[in-house]
Amino acid sequence: xxxxxxxxxxxxxxxxxxxxxxxxxxxxxxxxxxxxxxxxxxxxxxxxxxxxxxxxxxxxxxxxxxxxxxxxxxxxxxxxxxxxxxxxxxxxxxxxxxxxxxxxxxxxxxxxxxxxxxxxxxxxxxxxxxxxxxxxxxxxxxxxxxxxxxxxxxxxxxxxxxxxxxxxxxxxxxxxxxxxxxxxxxxxxxxxxxxxxxxxxxxxxxxxxxxxxxxxxxxxxxxxxxxxxxxxxxxxx
Amino acid sequence: xxxxxxxxxxxxxxxxxxxxxxxxxxxxxxxxxxxxxxxxxxxxxxxxxxxxxxxxxxxxxxxxxxxxxxxxxxxxxxxxxxxxxxxxxxxxxxxxxxxxxxxxxxxxxxxxxxxxxxxx
Amino acid sequence: xxxxxxxxxxxxxxxxxxxxxxxxxxxxxxxxxxxxxxxxxxxxxxxxxxxxxxxxxxxxxxxxxxxxxxxxxxxxxxxxxxxxxxxxxxxxxxxxxxxxxxxxxxxxxxxxxxxxxxxxxxxxxxxxxxxxxxxxxxxxxxxxxxxxxxxxxxxxxxxxxxxxxxxxxxxxxxxxxxxxxxxxxxxxxxxxxxxxxxxxxxxxxxxxxxxxxxxxxxxxxxxxxxxxxxxxxxxxxxxxxxxxxxxxxxxxxxxxxxxxxxxxxxxxxxxx
Lengths: 237, 120, 272
Fold this sequence. Notes:
The complex is a heterotrimer of chains A (about 240), B (about 120) and C (about 270). In chain A, about 40% of the residues lie in helices and about 25% in strands.
């Protein structure tokens, strides 16, 4: 049984088809990249996997379960936004994760704080955007999850720190699990990917091993992506 | 010696080549213990599975020996190492000659340039 | 897990309410001393204002502030705490939707209870300070009076106690209802894409009129077709079924509001 299975997943917002019969299967022990232009349905897919949105039709399963209390305990989610009360300190968030998640490794979290230069006594309200991103990453990667879902983990981070963040992800994830990274910064991320998934207008149009794709096309993943989606931009004009 | 990864070619291939170079130039001494996959992957900034694939390639070429108890070691077999070294040398030479050819130099002229260079 | 949720929610409320509760108690002590001066005719001008009128004004204001703040917090902890960015954290915790709702309801009720207790305590403090001379004699006399009444009218005394208990239960169920009514309204408002606030307000009004009516009619069926009548109470114990009716009606109402809220959060959640 695959770690993640999506069949015929569809979701419409008003007149916009965010997901259109999406099919996806992810195995354990892989780092998979999810790429697609804005509005391709990436965030919708991720929210469905996390139980934040209900699909109109189709199914999504993690370790055989529909998104529920159990899947929430094995999925570590890094959303593309802040989700904490301002008045909290970093330490408070660590306490919350410690309280609620059995797989949270407090020692590792403390260590990551040092590596990422985070002071647990700081109030979240006073942190810069980049520092908040690092804090969220620290919390998410300190869990021994079966599935890490990272929605744009590099977006708020300055270019110099991006490599550092990737290295943090690489050296801290649970190898028995998988990492699902949604991003539009493909060239920054492609080096660490096992597999890559392209999403276009709510459908999965490509799902290949990254190196195989490079071999077949003689191009980098980033270039493949531009090739596939450039035509559309031209079409719209 | 840093890893240089260009993204257009399969990364595992690029890693194999660069690791081969490290072995053949003695960066990893013959018979020495080879670093773990995770460590190498972190150093190169790549996925451990990708690094694993490149190591498997090196194993199949006889450059790395996997022992159940000791782990991975670099081969001590002189023949294998020399064969790889000369293959790499041949490749470099081929690329050099092609480049010089495009500039309009014949092999003889190349040879003269080399001996001249040596004397200086 | 539920306990951890409670801890989280309590912290959010207490952070704002503890200072207010503290201020009320402090102001009761102050007013205990400053109120008597209100009546002195010889005190003149600005002095009187600062020493008696201002403390009283602050005192009254603090009660209003507490009531308003409590209401605002109950709304905000749900609207922002669940249906906005913080929801990304709450809805991805390994807890069920009903646990999330339950924790919020429980803490809302506790907070309302504590607020009520603070009011009582504040009055007690005032009373003690104002009447401190007679107070110390008052307590033992009061107690012995109560025991006297108990000995003389045992049946009625038990009825009074039962009525007291029913009133307390009714208060709890109503306090839960205050919160659940708001939650259901906000959950319904969440269904709308652009007019969340407007729909929530309409829903709050609508739930009040429509659902309450239905529930009252349903419960009256249990009581033989018509609901018990305050106006024709003859004996004290006639109040018991009336109160029971109110408790059952409120409880059913609460259950309906909870069901609406949970169903929407479970099946129609659309966090942006």
